[in-house]
Amino acid sequence: MTSPATESKTPPQLERDATQDSAKRDIPRPVTVRTIARFVERGEKFACLTCYDATTARWLERAGVPVLLVGDTAAEVILGYPSTIFMPLDVLIALTAAVKRGAPNTLVMADMPFMSYQADEAEALRNAGRFMTEGLADTVKIEVDRTFAPLVEKMARAGVPVVAHIGARPQQSKLRGGYGSVGRTAEEARRLVADAVTLEKAGATMLLVEATPDEVAQQIVAKTHIPVIGCGAGTACHGQVVVLQDLLGLSDWQPSFARPIAWLGEPLLAAARQWIGMVRESRLGEHPYHMSEQERKDFAARSLHQSP
Ligand code: KIV
After folding, report:
1. What are the pLDDT digits (tens) for 23-32?
2. 152 and 144 in contact (C-beta within 8 Å)?
3. How many A from CA of 116 to the centre of ligand 1?
4. Which of 100, 190, 215, 285 is least surrounded by Cβ atoms within 10 Å, i.e. has the fewest?
5. pLDDT single digits (tens) 46-87
6. CB of 232 closer than 6 angstroms to any ligand 1 atom
7. DSSP class of residue 78?
8. Which part of the chain has CATH 3.20.20.60?
9. Which atom of ligand 1 is nearest to the CA of 111?
């Protein structure tokens, strides 16, 4: 973090790397749902990552990531809960706004947490509205099957771009006895494809398919006309999302489709240990705040003779 007195600049090497990054070059900003539709028309695959804070969002926008998901995985990754069902609505709205402030030109997708949209349609609409106004979200994501089509329709009618999350639905993990893949039987696979088609018809702006075999996502892509983001659903999907902390090697466990490609835990440990040493040995560098000679004398003299 920076403060006005100790402002630090982006390391020059990183600035150079970011501007040379070919992944960044062709993305028109701001990224909107129309930008994503154009990616799909042109057959350009797009990346999506979870993000839960403004600082990280700023770096991910610099890197050229077009879509950030403020997932309810924040319950686990940020708040330390054992499952996504514990995500408080107000906290996720606040985190969504933080991400959008950090990455104002990136499409920000907000996850609607457990029980913020399942119990009552009017409440679901109002909560989706809060994500868009207080949370500055560009789209909201809900974990659904075809029985939620009437809700998706009402949200779309109200002007809410809905991402319909199908396949594995972590908010149902208590019901199913844990996390797992979906669509490994022909019957289940057919049901998922039918869900996708129904939800598109209801007005979903995008689909997110989690933890299914390749063939299922292939069929969903073939049978629908909206962008499909995969999360462990194979390469047929137009976009791909994983939890950022999994990708960066910061998680103690990650699903097999989200293997780390960087190991940031190591430099983090090293930096924290270096800081411990610096504090213990009082090696803090030159102190930035000084008193004038006159003030110092005055301070010393009065401190000796007066109580505060
Ligand atoms: O909450 C989340 O992070 C998600 C993705 C893993 C798809 O829903």
Report:
1. 555 677 899 9
2. yes
3. 16
4. 285
5. 999 999 999 999 999 999 999 999 999 999 999 999 999 999
6. no
7. T
8. 4-263
9. 1
